[in-house]
Amino acid sequence: MEDLLWKNSKRASKLVAMTIACVATVWVVLPFLWAIVNSLKTHVDIFRAGAIIPFLQFTPTLDAWKEVLSDPQAFNSLFSSALVGVGTTILVLIIGTPAAYSLARFEFKRMKSKDITLWFLSQRVLPPVVVLTPFYILLAAFGLIDTWTGLILLYSTFNLAFCVVIMRDIFRDVSKEVEEAARIEGASLWQIFWMIALPLSLDGLIVTAFIVFAFSWNEALFASAVTSQHAATMPAFILASRSTRGVDFNFAAVNTILAIAPPVIMSFFVQRYLARGLSFGAVKG
Amino acid sequence: MEAAESVQSKAERGFKYALLAPAVIWVIGLTFFPILAAIHFSFANYVLGEGITGYVGFDNYIRLLTDSGFWYAIFITVLFVGITVPIEVCVGFILAWIITIGLPGKKFFRPVLTAPLFTTEVAIGYLGVTLFTDQGGLVSALLGALGIHIDWLSTSAGGLAAAMILDIWIWTPFVFLMSLAALSAIPNDIYDAAMLESSSHWQVFRHVAIPLSWPVLTIAILLRVIEGLKSFGLPYALTSGGPGTSTQLFSIMADLTTIQFTDFGRGSAMGVLYLILVSVVITFFFKQMRKRIE
Fold first, then answer.
1. What is the pLDDT of chain A when averaged over all its residues?
2. The whole model's pTM is what?
3. Are residues A137 and A255 in the same domain?
4. Which of A146, A202, A127, A182 lies closest to B277, judged by CA?
5. Are residues A161 and A253 both part of a single domain?
6. A283 lies within 8 A of chain B by CB
7. Contact check, Cβ <8 Å, B237/A96
8. Which of A64, A181, A199, B8 is most buried when burial is the number of CB atoms within 10 A of its CB?
9. b/e for A249-284, b at 16 or more Cβ within 10 A?
10. Hey, which residues 85-124 in chain A have their CB within 8 Å of chain B?
11. Interface predicted TM-score (ipTM)
12. Number of separate helices (H) and strands (E) present in chain A
C-alpha cells in the first residue's frame, strides 16, 4: 500500500511531504548541533552574537570539556545517574515481571486480572507532587536523603506499575500452546515462566528496561528534592549548576550533552515495541 | 479453559499469588500509604524536625484556595498543556502520515524524528537558556537576522512561550511514534481500496487515516495531558519560575513550597487539591484504557 499511495501521489504533494520531513529534521537537529557548537566555545565567544559556525566564526576549543571532565562533582553525578538508573531498572524488573506474568496467565478470585492491571496503572498516572511531602518525610525518617538507595526506592515505586502493565501485555502474546506443551513434558510453573515465557519476551523486556532506565536517568523533581551532593544525578547537578554557574553556557552545553547522550543513543537501538511500551500496551506495534 | 481453571491445582494458586504479591505490597506500601499520609499532613501544621505540631483543619486548603498565586499556577499549567498538546498532536500525526505513505528515507527519518523524546528535560531547559538568550543565543540570532526581537527570558509571556517551544520539541516525537504504530496497524487493503475510490491523498487522510487512528490518538492525547500537567524540569531549568513567580507551573510551585520553604502542610494540601483537579483527566483516561486492555 505504501508504494501505491506514494506512486499515485502528485509531484507537488511529494514535494510538500519531503519539505515537511526536511524542515522537521532541521528543527530536531538544530538544538543538538547548538549544544555541540557551544561546548566548543571559550567563555568569551559564548556571548558573541556572530559566533555560530566553528572555524569560520570562532576557534573551537576543548577547554569546557576538559573543565567539566576534571570536575569531580560532574563525574560523581554521571556515576550517580548510571547507578541509580541501573539499580532501578533491575529492581523494577525483578519485582514487576513476575507480577506481570501472573496477571497475564491467571485469573484471581476477587478481582479480574484486568482490573488489577488498571489498579497498577492508576498508580503510574498519579502526579508525583502529590506524594512529594510524604516521600521526603519517609526518606528523612530512614536517613535516606541524598543516598542512592533512597532514589532507587523512589524511582522503582514510580516505574513498577509501568513494568507490570507493559510486560503483562507482552506476555499475553506468548503462545499458550508452547507453554502447554512444556507442561505436558513435565516442566514446573516456575520453569515455564523462567525458561519459556521470559526468553520469548526478551524484546519486550529490553524495551521496558530501556524506558525505566530513561525515566530514572531524566527525572528531575525528586532528584533535586531529595539529593544535594552525594547522590545528585545529572538533572539535579544541572539544576544546581544553573544557579551557581548560570552564565557559563559552554559549561552548560557540555553537561547537556553528557546528560542527553546515553538515553538518546540507546533509543536508536530499541525502536521496536517503543510505541507499545510508551502507551502501556494500548498501541500494538 | 473454564474446566482447566476449576481443577486448578494448589501449586498453581500458590505460584500466581507468590508472583503477584511483592508488586502489590510495594504499591500499597509506597503509594497508597503515602497518599493517605499526604491527606493527613494537609490538615496539620508540620515543622521539619519536630513533626506535626498541631492540626489546623481546613486552614491549609482555605489559604491555598484564596491565594491568587495558586490559581495563577493552575492557570498557566492548563494554558501550557492547552497550547502544547494540540500542536504536538497535529504535527506528530502529520509527520507519521508522511512517513507511512512511503516517503523515501524512512529508515533515516524515523529514528531522527524520535530522538528528542528521550532527552533529559532539565538539560534541554538549560540548553534553552543558551538558545533564547539575547547574548549570543541561536534563536535570537536567527530572528535578529529577520529583524525580529523578542524578550524571551525576561518576560513571563516570553519565558512561557520558550518553555512551550521546547516542550513541543521534546514531546511531538511521542505522538509521532504512537501515530506511526496506529497508521501501520491499518490493513493495507483498506488503504488500497480508499486510494482507488478517492482521488486525493487528502481524502484518504481525512476519511481513513484519522478516523481509524482516533482510538490510539485519544490515548496519546490523554497521556500527553497527564504528563504535561506534571511539567517540572524543563520550565524550571529554563526560567527558574521567573521573572518573579510568573512562570511557576504547578509542580514548580509545589516543589518550592515543600522543599525550599519546608511548608509540608501546605505542600501536602497542594498535592491533594491537584490530585482532585487532575482526576477528571485520569478518569477519562481510564475509561479509554479499559476499552484497550484485554
1. 88
2. 0.91
3. yes
4. A127
5. yes
6. yes
7. no
8. A64
9. bbbbbbbbbbbbebbbebbeebeebbbbbbbbbbbb
10. 95-96, 98-99, 101-103, 105-108, 114, 116-118, 120-123
11. 0.90
12. 15, 0
Nearest chain B residue to A215 by CA distance is B118
Enclosing domain of residue A100: 73-278
pLDDT for the residue numbered A200: 92
Q: Do B136 and A49 touch (CB under 8 A)?
A: yes
pLDDT, residue B100, reads 87
Note whether A163 and A96 are within 8 A (CB): yes
Question: Which parts of B27-120 are beta strand (E)?
Answer: 44-47, 51-55
What CATH number is given to the structural domain containing A272?
1.10.3720.10
Nearest CA in chain B to A96: B23
Comparing CA positions, the residue from A155, A130, A137 lying closest to residue B282 is: A130
Q: Is the peptide bond before A199 cis (omega within 30 degrees of 0)?
A: no
- pLDDT tens column, A145-193: 999 999 999 999 999 998 999 999 999 988 888 888 888 888 888 999 9
Separation in Å, CA B132 to CA A49, B83, B127, B139, B169: 12, 19, 9, 5, 14
Mark yes or no for CB contact B103/A17 under 8 Å. yes
pLDDT in tens, B222-248: 999 999 999 999 999 999 888 888 999
B224 membership: H or E segment, kind and range: helix B210-228
Query: What letter does residue B54 receive in the DSSP assignment?
Result: E
Note whether A98 contacts B19, CB cutoff 8 Å: yes
Beta bridge partners of B52: B46
Q: d(Cα B11, Cα B13) in Å, to the nearest integer?
A: 5
Does residue A54 belong to any structural domain of this protein? Answer: no
When pLDDT is averaged across residues B57-77 and rounded to a whole number, the result is: 93
Q: Is the pLDDT of residue B197 over 90?
A: no
Angle subtended at Cα A166 by Cα B293 and Cα A125, rounded to the nearest 5 degrees: 80
| Whether residue B109 has pLDDT greater than 80 | yes
Domain boundaries for CATH 1.10.3720.10 within chain B: 61-292
A146 shares its domain with A186 = yes
- The CATH code belonging to domain B61-292 is 1.10.3720.10
Nearest to A134 among B37, B124, B236 (CB): B37
